């Protein structure tokens, strides 16, 4: 397996500056993406001054969310905003978030890095430090309405303008639940009962859901959605289409290779798909389409990727930026093969005007684990069936060919 890209040393708990790169770590640089410089990170005073000036706060917890915040800012012509990164534990996610933070600063935005999960006192410290900004903000942009952290922060804001940007295909489930008036639950969670933590957090979740529900006609609160997903929005939600215009302007066009590339998924890690069946499907896809590289999802386990390399011969690539940016810059295969995931909706937009084709392979119901949510198959079929400008591959044909 190839060395993970973007590996860095981790900061001390509570540090405001993203961790610096480890000397000698191999990493593939992207054109126009500078290295993190010491002392580069705006301090808290700068973040607060930016919030007072612009009145817009954005909360992100993943690289894709931050990418879509930048796309929204480009479309909305929001020249300055304060992006608050609620940093997770996962090293790959942190590495990609750090590189996205560099791009955000290049665009003139302020980035405030919060070690929101850096120990038992971190949530109290983080929320306490963000409360003054939330009170002053006129507009709040969020990337994950299912996040308990974000739901709690929404109960503290007085902002009358809320914007939800894509957090991948989860946006489709969020809009469906919002339209039906249901509590916000991630699609891959098994069962419908409330656990002890759900019961404790239920009042905050209910308040956040009300904040995300459009006010009656003539009301003073607005809810917007910035999305590239095919969604049927409830009345009152203001929809703006994410066409990945910023990505296309900033990167590319890509250099194309002759071989195909496969895009990985974390469906095994979330307990939806059986690992053996998944690896069997990847092996069949690689043989059928002469693929040579496997772009790993940031949440895929090291053990699974090691096994994948041994059984398929594919080169595993761990990108240090979201795949939309990696593909746009290149080199990238003329054919990109994916399982049902966000990229089957976003890559055709990011690669518009190039010769790259995107194909999606269905998930066979027999691949699902006994722990998979009853909603899993229907949700995955919906992700595939609503994708535009992609070739649909039937799993039976791929397995037979393999």
Keywords:
Rossmann fold; single chain; seven-stranded parallel beta sheet; six-stranded parallel beta sheet; alpha/beta; 402 residues; 15 strands; 38% helix
TL;DR of this structure?
By secondary structure, this protein is an alpha/beta fold.
Q: What this model shows, in words?
A:
With 402 residues, this protein is α/β, with parallel strands linked by helices. The chain folds into two domains: 44-242, Rossmann fold (3-Layer(aba) Sandwich), CATH 3.40.50; 249-401, Rossmann fold (3-Layer(aba) Sandwich), CATH 3.40.50. Helices cover 38% and strands 16% of the residues. The protein has 14 helices and 15 strands. It has helices at residues 44-54, 63-76, 91-106, 122-136, 148-154, 170-180, 196-211, 245-250, 275-289, 302-312, 323-329, 343-350, 376-385, 395-401; strands at residues 56-60, 82-86, 110-114, 139-142, 161-165, 222-227, 237-241, 256-257, 260-263, 291-295, 315-317, 332-333, 335-338, 357-361, 391-393.
State the helicity in percent bands.
Answer: 25-40%
Query: For the terminal residues, how far apart are their CA atoms?
Result: 22 Å
What CATH first level of the largest domain would be assigned? Alpha Beta
Using the alpha-carbon principal axes, give the shape. Answer: globular
Integer count of domains: 2
Uncertain segments: 1-42, 50-54
Secondary-structure element series: HEHEHEHEHEHHEEHEEHEHEHEEHEHEH
Helical run tally:
14
Roughly what is the average pLDDT, rounded to an integer?
83
Q: Beta fraction of the residues?
A: 15-25%
Using only C-alpha atoms, the radius of gyration works out to 21 Å
CATH third-level topology of the largest domain: Rossmann fold
């Amino acid at each position: 397996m190839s060395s993970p890209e973007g590996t860095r040393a981790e900061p001390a708990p509570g540090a405001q500056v993203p961790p610096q790169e480890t000397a000698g770590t191999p990493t593939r640089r992207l054109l126009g993406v500078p290295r993190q410089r010491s002392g580069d990170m705006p301090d808290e005073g700068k973040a607060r001054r930016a919030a007072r000036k612009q009145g817009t706060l954005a909360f992100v917890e993943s690289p894709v969310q931050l990418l879509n915040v930048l796309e929204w800012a480009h479309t909305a012509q929001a020249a300055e905003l304060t992006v608050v990164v609620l940093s997770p534990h996962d090293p790959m996610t942190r590495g990609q978030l750090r590189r996205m933070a560099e791009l955000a600063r290049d665009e003139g935005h302020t980035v405030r890095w919060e070690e929101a999960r850096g120990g038992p006192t971190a949530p109290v410290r983080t929320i306490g430090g963000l409360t003054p900004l939330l009170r002053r903000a006129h507009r709040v942009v969020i990337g994950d309405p299912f996040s308990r952290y974000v739901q709690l922060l929404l109960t503290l804001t007085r902002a009358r303008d809320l914007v939800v940007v894509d957090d991948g295909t989860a946006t489709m489930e969020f809009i469906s639940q919002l339209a039906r008036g249901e509590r916000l639950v991630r699609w891959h969670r098994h069962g419908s009962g409330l656990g002890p933590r759900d019961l404790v957090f239920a009042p905050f979740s209910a308040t956040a859901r009300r904040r995300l529900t459009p006010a009656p006609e003539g009301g003073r609160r607005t809810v917007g959605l910035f999305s590239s997903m095919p969604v049927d929005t409830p009345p009152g939600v203001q929809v703006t289409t994410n066409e990945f215009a910023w990505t296309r302007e900033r990167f590319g066009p890509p250099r194309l290779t002759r071989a195909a590339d496969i895009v990985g998924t974390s469906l095994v890690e979330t307990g939806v798909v059986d690992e053996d069946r998944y690896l069997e499907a990847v092996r069949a896809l690689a043989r059928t389409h002469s693929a040579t590289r496997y772009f790993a999802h940031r949440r895929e386990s090291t053990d699974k990727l090691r096994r994948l390399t041994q059984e398929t011969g594919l080169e595993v690539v761990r990108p240090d930026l979201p795949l939309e940016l990696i593909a746009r810059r290149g080199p990238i295969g003329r054919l990109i093969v994916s399982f049902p995931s966000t990229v089957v909706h976003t890559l055709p937009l990011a690669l518009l005007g190039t010769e790259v084709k995107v194909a999606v392979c269905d998930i066979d119901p027999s691949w699902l684990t006994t722990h998979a949510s009853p909603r899993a198959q229907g949700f995955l079929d919906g992700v595939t069936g609503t994708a535009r400008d992609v070739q649909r591959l039937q799993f039976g044909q791929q397995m037979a060919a393999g």
